[in-house]
């Protein structure tokens, strides 16, 4: 039985067996009905055999058995039957740049719950039978597991890609054997050759994906749906290598599905959008959720003519009228991304047009950080990701300071966006380019989403959602938030976390870079930058302190899986620890703790060197999934002298990533923190009390305690006067100038403390020190 999880408390299961079969491309063909609040359509998967079976095909059958054993323990309990209908193949002649889309003629014969009710039981998988079905079939059938939730699956079938004209050229190297297996091997060979076409043939690849997705079916597949998964098998097929590598699924969403929100915009008009659900997109389409399932996609969406369809796609789609009142929109992506990053927003959005003139985006030498010769050498090296049309290898893209952008909003917010968002975007994009270099994505749409959006912003490939809350009150909040979301293009999207529990890799970097981008976008002076960033650091420190005091300890750990981070089961399935805890959505620990880690590293290394290391990291790891250690090892290799101060990957794990509570700083880091706090005009007693308690300042070395005493004196923190007295008595080599600080405030209690300490220590003080202190006091 599939494990039942408490959706308010437990971990998010990633059920897909990606080690056995790995999706490489999705083709979606969808109809959106606002009246019923249902998205209905077809999705075609193009698979590769998983890594376990590509390496050693001779062990397929033995390997499959262990996967079956695992899957049988958690299999679904809800049978779903198959309507016996056929897809009429589209016949059209298309060029590579002309992707025709076939309409659907399927008749919906399901009841309101999505279960087939045509009075004829088709070959679904009975819930009472073992999923491996050894007794009935004499062998164990391979089971493909997809992530799926809140969907009505109507039919699953194999796609006959061999029926598509000209695809035989993809199968010239196929070694076909007996007739019973010949066609299956041929189809899988065609899919393999298609998904592995070189990057410079991406247009041809998209063309054939479209053609193959419209090919006729060649046999229905058995399936069953559960709370979290869709399980599919083909009778007699025992290994992933022999399982169909192109399958088609008919399905429809449910109005209560948790991946999309049906609502109205600020102008009262209906809309639907993906709002960053904890369950990601599995209630929008069946998919492989684990981040390792990096795939491309293309999608055709049909809806009423008054609606605009925005999506994570490389192209700025132009609608095509299919019939009166119905428009079709087509988007595609050629950079492999996790399915969770797929984003769609459909509404009566209005495009905010540019003014007749555009403000000049400054990129002078004061504003820009020149790239070094090392930066140029990196661009000459080959990328480390799987092959795709990469902008980092495109000379024109590497020089593109500001990528093309558009802004959309409900009509009632058009003027606000024209005066604010439209003007800020080029400044923020230019600042990001100045800091990190090549933009990973070719264009950007920014959409002001409905007021029920639960965040200030969300970044996806080629599109950013912004809350209306960033619009009032001037540029600061809007500009800073834009910079944060733009930073996700590099950290979170182009570079993703291999283990989703390591959210700090995305959010910590975006929070840190937000300040860098925004300061450069405003073209602030050095002193203005320092003042703004120190103030933000103080505000974030207070927010982090409050969250640590008022949240569960287990939610404060940035690497909750610790040494097991990145590990998955034999099948590729895993869980996202605490992924379904409702309160986790609103916590900012991963943002703030990650930010302070990166800030401390930057201050230890020096900002210029640190940003150079970030650019190196981006160039080395874009298009890939990483773990914390990938960044930390690379950074520390560049600065080996830091090891002498105790800064190692292991110490960072121990003090920052693997523990709850406030970070345990190294002495030098504590000194930097306290010195930054010394620049603040006021700190309340409660803040100072929490500071001492959190970092156990009384137990630190003399350098740290000296700064602590300075804070006590500056802010007249009476409960800490005992610490000052002890320091002046026991650390005379460092305490001389504290006497002066006690006197300069002209505070009676502090001056009394200075006289008292000097009287007690004078007899034993060094003659020169005693003379200097006496001059301060008398």
From TrEMBL:
Domain of life per record: Eukaryota
A Pfam entry, by short name: Peptidase_M1
Leader sequence segment: none
GO molecular function: metalloaminopeptidase activity; zinc ion binding
Polar residues: bias regions: 115-126
Domain named Peptidase M1 leukotriene A4 hydrolase/aminopeptidase C-terminal: residues: 646-777
InterPro entries: Aminopeptidase_N-like_N_sf, AOPep, ARM-type_fold, Peptidase_M1_C, Peptidase_M1_dom, Peptidase_M4/M1_CTD_sf
Annotated region (Disordered), positions in chain: 107-126
Gene Ontology CC terms: nucleolus
Name the UniProt record assigns to this protein: Aminopeptidase O (putative)
């Amino acid at each position: 039985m599939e494990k039942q999880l408490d959706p308010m408390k437990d971990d998010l299961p990633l059920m897909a067996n990606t080690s056995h079969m790995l999706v490489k491309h999705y083709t979606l063909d969808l109809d959106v009905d606002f009246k019923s609040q249902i998205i209905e359509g077809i999705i075609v998967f193009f698979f590769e055999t998983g890594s376990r079976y590509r390496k050693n095909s001779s062990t397929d059958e033995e390997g499959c058995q262990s996967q079956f054993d695992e899957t049988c323990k958690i299999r679904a309990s809800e049978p779903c039957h198959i309507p016996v209908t056929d897809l009429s193949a589209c016949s059209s002649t298309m060029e590579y740049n002309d992707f025709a889309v076939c309409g659907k003629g399927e008749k919906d014969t399901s009841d309101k719950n999505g279960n087939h009710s045509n009075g004829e039981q088709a070959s679904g998988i009975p819930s009472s039978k073992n999923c491996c079905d050894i007794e009935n079939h004499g062998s164990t059938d391979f089971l493909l597991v997809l992530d799926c939730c809140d969907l009505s699956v109507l039919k699953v079938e194999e796609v006959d890609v061999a029926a598509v004209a000209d695809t035989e050229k993809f199968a010239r190297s196929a070694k076909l054997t007996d007739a019973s297996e010949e066609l299956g091997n041929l189809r899988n060979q065609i899919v393999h050759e298609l998904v592995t076409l070189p990057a410079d043939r991406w247009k041809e690849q998209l063309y054939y994906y479209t053609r193959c997705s419209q090919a006729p079916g060649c046999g229905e597949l058995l399936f069953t749906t559960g709370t979290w998964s869709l399980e599919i098998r083909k009778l007699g097929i025992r290994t992933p290598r022999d399982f169909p590598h192109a399958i088609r699924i008919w399905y429809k969403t449910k109005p209560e599905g948790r991946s999309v929100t049906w609502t109205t915009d600020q102008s009262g008009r209906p809309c639907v959008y993906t709002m960053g659900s904890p369950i990601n997109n599995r209630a929008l389409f069946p998919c492989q959720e684990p981040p390792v399932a990096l795939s491309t996609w293309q999608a055709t969406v049909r809806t009423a003519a008054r609606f605009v369809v925005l999506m994570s796609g490389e192209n700025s789609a132009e609608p095509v009228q299919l019939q009166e009142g119905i428009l079709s929109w087509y988007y595609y992506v050629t950079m492999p991304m996790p399915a969770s990053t797929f984003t769609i927003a459909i509404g009566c959005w209005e495009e905010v047009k540019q003014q007749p003139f555009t403000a000049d985006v400054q990129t002078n030498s004061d504003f820009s950080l020149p790239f070094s010769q090392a930066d140029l050498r990196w661009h000459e090296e080959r990328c480390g990701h799987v092959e795709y049309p990469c902008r980092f290898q495109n000379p024109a893209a590497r020089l593109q300071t500001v990528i093309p952008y558009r802004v959309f909003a409900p009509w009632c917010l058009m003027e606000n966006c024209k005066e604010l968002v439209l003007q800020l975007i080029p400044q923020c994009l230019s600042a990001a380019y100045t800091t990190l270099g090549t933009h990973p994505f070719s264009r950007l749409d920014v959409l002001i989403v409905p007021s029920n959006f639960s965040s200030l912003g969300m970044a996806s490939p080629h599109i950013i959602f912004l809350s209306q809350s960033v619009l009032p009150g001037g540029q600061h909040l809007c500009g800073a938030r834009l910079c944060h979301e733009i930073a996700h293009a590099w950290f979170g999207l182009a570079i993703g976390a291999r283990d989703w529990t390591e959210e700090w890799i995305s959010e910590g970097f975006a929070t840190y870079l937000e300040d860098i981008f925004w300061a450069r976008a405003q073209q602030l002076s050095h002193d203005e930058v320092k003042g703004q960033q120190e103030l933000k650091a103080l505000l974030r420190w207070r927010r982090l302190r409050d969250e640590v005091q008022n949240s569960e300890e287990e939610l404060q750990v940035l690497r909750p899986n610790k040494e097991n981070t990145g590990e998955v089961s034999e099948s590729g399935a895993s869980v996202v620890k605490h992924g379904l805890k409702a309160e986790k959505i609103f916590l900012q620990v991963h943002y703030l703790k990650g930010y302070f880690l990166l800030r401390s590293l930057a201050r230890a290394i020096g900002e210029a060197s640190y940003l150079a290391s970030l650019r190196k990291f981006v160039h080395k790891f874009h298009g890939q999934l990483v773990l914390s250690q990938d960044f930390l090892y690379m950074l520390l290799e560049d600065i080996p002298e830091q090891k002498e101060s105790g800064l190692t990957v292991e110490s960072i794990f121990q003090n920052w990533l693997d523990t709850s509570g406030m970070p345990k700083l190294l002495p030098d880091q504590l000194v930097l923190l306290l010195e930054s706090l010394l620049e603040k005009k006021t700190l309340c007693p409660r803040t100072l009390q929490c500071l001492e308690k959190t970092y156990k300042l009384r137990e630190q070395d003399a350098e740290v305690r000296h700064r602590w005493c300075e804070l006590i004196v500056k802010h007249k923190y009476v409960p800490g006067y005992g610490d000052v007295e002890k320091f002046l008595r026991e650390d005379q080599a460092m305490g001389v100038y504290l006497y002066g600080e006690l006197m300069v405030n002209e505070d009676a209690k502090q001056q009394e403390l200075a006289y008292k300490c000097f009287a007690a220590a004078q007899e034993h003080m060094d003659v020169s020190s005693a003379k200097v202190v006496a001059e301060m006091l008398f």
